[in-house]
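Quick question, first post here. What does this chain look like in 3D?
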Amino acid sequence: MVGVPLAIFMILIWAMALVSVLWSFTDWQGIGPLHFVGLQEYNYLFTGYPPFWPAVSHNLLWLLFFVCIATPIGILLAVLLDRPLRGSRIYQGIFFTPVVLSLAVVGFIWELQYSPVAGHGFIDSALAATGLMSGNSSPDWLGDKSINIWAVLVAASWRHIGYIMVLYLAGLKSVDPSLREAAAIDGASESQTFFHVVFPVMAPINVVIVVVTVIESLRAFDIVYIINHGKNGLELLATLITNTSLSEASLIGFGSAMATVLLVISLVPIVLYLTRVMRSEEQ
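> Answer (accepted):
Ran it through. Tokens below.
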């Protein structure tokens, strides 16, 4: 029962990843023989491929937005819903609903919300109703290169916030109530209790939250691809890999080089997390 799923996982995931690494040292175009070119594809990627560094900056912006805004909001919602609040289950269900949707569906939903067609887009209609925007000054939320990345980040955060909320709420439920009672007896306020008692106890969950946030930022793909195939100011590493490998030129070797770079970057938080977990188990 373990061997068969493990074999399938190793073949479909790690074997394919190893093949991609090997392809990154060739100029293979999907058809014909493979020609070993060494680090030529990597050299062109870092020094001569214009979309690469903007895509890296967009992934970093995605990470900073999630770390500084989306993840703290998810944690805040978890703390608020951890209280004995009337209708807490209903609120949890509302905030968790986007999590059960794929990012492709989320992208389609927010395409409708950002629609510039009068009466179709919720964002424009809400701004017009409050007097913050006139009908003739509607921005092109997803087409304007100066603002579309921010519009997509808001859409992606809609799902990410609910995901973080559920993870952190599960961790808060496992905190020993006697710790909070002891802090209350000592005269600590709710904020002092959280930051000085609950938050340190939640260290394992905090590490998981950080790792999840980093990985979600690095593997961002679906929502951007469904909107405009990762072009016109929405370039990300994952979309560049797909567009390069599946283009008419079929630059499999070059796309594999980008995939290898993304793999190496992604392994950093994973290795740090596994190292922490194994060290805590040994202790």
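The first helix runs from residue 3 to 23.
The chain has a mean pLDDT of 86.
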